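Hey,

Quick one before I head out. I ran the complex with flavin mononucleotide overnight. Inputs first:
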Amino acid sequence: MTPISDDDILARWKEEPAPLLPILHDFHDRDGFLSEEALRAVAHGLRIPIADLFGTVTFYHHFAREPRGLGAPRVCTGPICKMRGADALLGALDGATAMPCSGRCDDPIPVLRGHDTLVGLSGESLESRPSPLPPAVQEGIEECVFAHIREPGRASLDGYRNSGGYEGLRKALDMTPAELVQLVADSGLAGRGGAGFPTGVKWKAVADAEGHPKTIVCNADEGEPGCFKDRCLMDYDPHGVVEGMVLAAYATGATRGFLYLRYEYPETELVLARAMSEAREAGLLGPGILGTVFSFELYLRRGAGAYICGEETSLLNSLEGKHPFPRNRPPYPVTHGFADLPTAVNNVETLASVPPIVRHGADWYRGLGRGDQAGTKVISLSGDVARPGNYEVPLGFPLIELIDGWAGGTRDGHTIQAVTMAGLSGGFLAGDDLDVTLDEPSIRSRGSFLGAGGIMVFDDTRDMIEVSHQAMEFFADESCGKCFPCRIGTQRLMERLAGKEGPKELQPWIEEVVDVGKTMMETSACGLGMAAPLITNSLLKYFPEQVSDHVTR
Ligand SMILES: Cc1cc2nc3c(=O)[nH]c(=O)nc-3n(C[C@H](O)[C@H](O)[C@H](O)COP(=O)(O)O)c2cc1C
Ligand code: SF4
């Protein structure tokens, strides 16, 4: 077969919005790497200065610049995989390189090879298999996004429709967009991607904003270490995400949407593409949805590996083919988002929550939470627990009941030394603070936050300095470098945790680490630099003896 030519690739995407990433992926797939000639062809075709394009391409982890780079194994070296021996696996696989947490912490170590994800603990045991389903629901618990996810065939349109799929959309089309926005606001749904912003408020702001076309972006970047819930939702309930996006479009007046999927989920891309094509054929996407005048075109875009692209403005720059630095805010994406036009960026779980909310009503969703807390949250639980996995809990549910009751507790009679919150971004909780309930007010009262709901458990055998060092190494690697408090601060904190340079006495060491962290929190331009010091602050709070040993050793 003659390989597809440069011109054919460029022509294929000419009329499509957000063409840079798919064009680069096509060249990458065709050649197995991005050659200099390919970059020149892209720069010429899209009229991007070659130096800018080079800077952007090399910013991403997964675009190989050497021949056959695409097929070389990429081994996950996230915190949980490190505990399972990722470094040894990395050394054992020919030509392998490390990649940050690739969102499969409820399985053995993931290895990306070309477009396949393999999992295993050694080179010989690597196998391709579906990502894990959530563990069985607990008695007496009612779920929202996971309610039907375990039903066989749920990922197909027929399977989705068997249990009420797209009924929410039919119901919504009998309402006005403003009524739909109000329903979502009344449900109390807040963003599940990290920041917890009320979804109804965001949608109203987009609906009220001037400028067309408006855009819905589904943030499926899921780069936070220890988070793997969006993968599960997309793998097993892709139509739930698509329906959520169509509902968001109807509510806000958007006519186009992008689903921005992280590079590390190649199988998920196929599942989503299939669901989108089924939905289009059934008149659920595209022009005149379900015979109405409402139209919504949805595009799937694959990232290329950069944690910062999960930050919504960075993601927008990435989609637009720019260097994916976060943007200065205000203005916010609700008025100046994709192509400087009104845009709602929402997380996968947020969007997947909307169809059941529309079907069952705002009061139903509110009532799923405990106390004053509205609704549910998927927690990705991993590390030193008997049954890691994705658990959908009522907001306000006790953390310890989740770990000890639902997930079977720690292994081999060990005790919990610490857990992380918000993946890594919330730092650690330990000691008496493990008695929190899973909701923002409770966790924020202990100086952390729930965020996207990744929780990693470390038992009493773990070296918390080493865990903290790895965490800071991740933030230092992923800092985009746009602002110096974060660029330099993450490096300094990483060096101190590695025992490199810096004060040799405890008090000056602590003062320096606290001071660097405070400056980062007060002056960083985005959430990465603001959150990273929670690692060192919580280490100092809960593990002063380990810190003292580390500094004086
Ligand atoms: C460094 C950083 C990484 C982020 N990564 C993600 C991500 O992978 N997925 C996500 O949905 N939100 C992520 N966010 C939050 C987004 O910026 C944004 O708040 C979210 O997508 C909005 O959707 P929601 O309101 O439905 O939560 C990240 C934020 C920061 C600061
Ligand atoms: S805080 Fe860090 S990641 Fe965020 S813009 Fe600044 S340098 Fe980039």
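Residues 62 and 304 are 5 Å apart (CA to CA).

Talk tomorrow,
K.
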